[in-house]
Design a protein that fits this description.
alpha/beta, TIM Barrel, seven-stranded parallel beta sheet, two-stranded antiparallel sheet
Length: 287
């Protein structure tokens, strides 16, 4: 395993992964629908991620749908023993590009089997249950949905479980049903509602994986971020990634890109060392 990647490694249950991972969402077409505009380029990005030493790829069969998983399989199967793929269930795609929930037991079982098929696996390393909606986490019990995934785990189809877009109460409810190894929520310099949850999870040895670490479809922008980046002769996005890695040791990064050059830039940028003054200036953004 390449320990030269920024942040070193973390253990998801019994799986050692690089804290700097890769999110495959952007490999699908516009708005995560349809095939990529550049099929060969998408394959090349996935292979470059593994060549760089990344051992944590995040995906979902709903991306495309199916196209992203099929690209991963085409590019990387049979998978290196060190590579671990994390997928997500609990939502599907409609013809308008929406993400309607699909968390009833039959839909979840079908989604797990779809992921197994499209990725070419007999067991999924980690499956996150996607909760809430496009507006963010929503209150409500996760017992039936998470219990369904826990049963699939007992059957050997899933190795480890996590939750995504979840409230702290839902995280606790899921943990009472089966162990979780990660929580994947919206978090970045400007969106820091989960500050307390990150600390709680760190104390339990559970990973926190921020989605949209760079702001998503609306990239992060702030005078403080630009100021620190200029001082370090770097880019705002590199500083934002480095800040996340220094924020807490249980934070794992899954920035996505469809460009090899951008992938390499992300890896290099995340290795920035931020001083106490840098951190203090950046800390003001989300307060």
């Amino acid at each position: 395993m390449n320990n030269s990647l920024p942040g070193g490694t973390w253990t998801l249950g019994d799986l050692d992964v690089t804290r700097f991972g890769y999110g495959a969402m952007q490999l699908a077409g516009p708005w995560v629908m349809g095939p990529p505009a550049d099929h060969d380029g998408a394959i090349a990005v996935l292979r470059e991620a593994v060549a760089l030493g990344i051992t944590h790829i995040d995906t979902a069969d709903a991306y495309g749908p199916r196209f992203t998983n099929e690209l991963i399989k085409e590019a990387l199967h049979p998978y290196p023993a060190s590579l671990h793929i994390v997928t997500k269930v609990g939502a599907v795609r409609d013809e308008q590009g929406g993400w309607p929930p699909a968390r009833d037991p039959d839909s979840l079982r079908r989604a797990v089997h779809d992921n197994l098929e499209t990725l070419g696996l007999e067991t999924l390393d980690v499956v996150n249950l996607r909760l809430g909606n496009a507006e963010g986490p929503q209150p409500g019990s996760v017992a039936e949905a998470f219990g369904t995934l826990a049963e699939l785990r007992r059957q050997g189809l899933i190795r480890h479980l996590g939750v995504s877009n979840a409230t702290a109460e839902q995280v606790a409810e899921a943990q009472a049903i089966a162990p979780i190894v990660c929580v994947q929520n919206l978090y970045n310099l400007a969106h820091r509602d989960d500050d307390e949850l990150i600390g709680t999870l760190a104390a339990q040895g559970i990973a926190y994986v921020p989605f949209f670490p760079l702001g998503g479809f609306s990239p992060l922008q702030s005078a403080a971020l630009t100021s620190v980046a200029d001082r370090l002769a770097s880019t705002p996005m590199s500083v934002a990634l480095a800040w996340l890695l220094q924020r807490s040791p249980n934070i794992l990064l899954i920035p996505g890109t469809s460009s090899i050059a951008h992938l390499r830039e992300n890896v290099t940028g995340a290795g920035l060392s931020l001083s106490a003054d840098d951190l203090a200036e950046l800390d003001k953004i989300g307060r």
